[in-house]
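sorry for the late reply, my laptop died twice this morning and i had to redo everyting from scratch. anyway the thing you sent over, i finally got around to it. pasting the sequence first so we're on the same page, its 286 residues, then the predicted structure underneath. double check i copied it right bc i was rushing
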Amino acid sequence: MCRLVFIVVFLLVCAPIRHASGDPVDDALHVLARDLSPRVRAQAALALDPLAARPEVRRALSAALSDADPIVRAAAAKSLSGLAPAEAWIPLCQAALDPDPMVARWAARAERRVLARAAAVSVGIRGIVALIGRDHDLATRTIKEVVLEHLLKSRRYSVDASFDFSEQVAVPVGEGPVIRLDLEGEASSAAADAESATVRVVLRAVAPSGHVVWQGQADATGRHEAPAAPGPDDDEYTLRQAPPEASLVALRIAAEAVAPELVKALASEGEAPPEESSPPRRRRER
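ok and here's the structure:
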């Protein structure tokens, strides 16, 4: 009841309309879609925040992310950041690239909250390049294996064939809309000498719009290992496995450091933008 009273007050004070329908929510939706004043449309978006659980309100707020005025887009993103409905994922991902910083900050906030609350997240590989060691394919596969291992510890993630070797993996996920996310990154050699090698691994979680939701990196150092000494039963025909390259040892250590940070970040709602980046609250326009 208090939510409806809040909207009624908004309509009476900020946006009186000539042809009221009798339903304050419908009237607020009409104002959001039709009022000529950007400030009033923004106030309508903020007034609808408490009712964002209603499908028609979610649809209207998602549509308002494309409003011609940034103050309206920011207000819509701010209202959507409360409930963070999964249905708004794609519009929010687009809005996170908005040229207006206030819009982008609130959309990114809502985007992170949708991702953190999603029951099902489908993860693919957009591109991981690991120019490490003599076998670059092995290095790239090593990063994917480590990331996959950490993702599959949670039942809400599924992976697609872009992981190359994971087509057979079947992961049960929660009910509801599936949120799509891609990973990209690279591994590079930071330093190397006769005894050791240092590698840096960078990972990014990328929304369908191309907006980078999260980025992390880790450096690690691996040491060269001497070949194992021949055993008592070895002869000139015995095949002994060569020790791994120091760069590949470092690569796995770095990947093991950054992968859990990725999973932790995807479950975090992040921080709200500072108050000064909020769209203005209800204020009667003269």
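The chain is about 40% helix and 20% strand.
thats about all i looked at so far, will dig more tmrw
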